[in-house]
Amino acid sequence: VQLQASGGGLVPPGGSLKLSCVVSGMIFSANAMAWYRQAPGKQRESVASINSGGLTNYADSVKGRFTISRDNAKNTVYLQMNNLKPEDTAVYYCRSAYIYWGQGTQVTVSS
After folding, report:
1. Which of 43, 41, 50, 44 is nearest to 21 (CA)?
2. CB under 8 Å to 100, separation ≥6 — which residues?
3. Beta 66-71 vs 76-81: how paired, if at all?
4. In the 3-class helix/strand/coil scheme, how is 25-91 assigned residue by residue?
5. Backbone angles phi, psi at 48, to 5 degrees
6. Per-block average pLDDT, block size 10, for the chain (111 residues)?
7. Which pLDDT score, from 0 to 100, does residue 15 have?
8. Which stretch of DSSP H or E encloses residue 5?
9. Residue 73 burial (CB < 10 Å; 0-12/13-18/19+)?
């Protein structure tokens, strides 16, 4: 199983980014997907998840600003991040089936 995340970058506070994670080697549509993040000196934390039926869950810190979605035809999960704050700065990771991890993509929110 391979997960390839992309879409990170440097944005000013209030800006937006959309992360993507393409999955191969597994039945994507049957599995839950999730995004995590890890800031310097902090533990990795769950940001958002989406199950095979499309049910979503979010960390309180990102509710109303982030949206997780999936495109089963493209084996891809997305994380739309709006109104970004400096505290959102972290390496973001995608995870499939609560087992497999992708490589991280850096998100930096700074003016």
Report:
1. 50
2. 1, 3, 26
3. antiparallel
4. CCCHHHCCEEEEEECCCCCCEEEEEECCCCCEEECCCCCCCEEEEEEHHHCEEEEEECCCCHHHCEE
5. -160, 155
6. 96 98 94 97 97 97 98 97 98 94 96 94
7. 98
8. strand 2-6
9. exposed
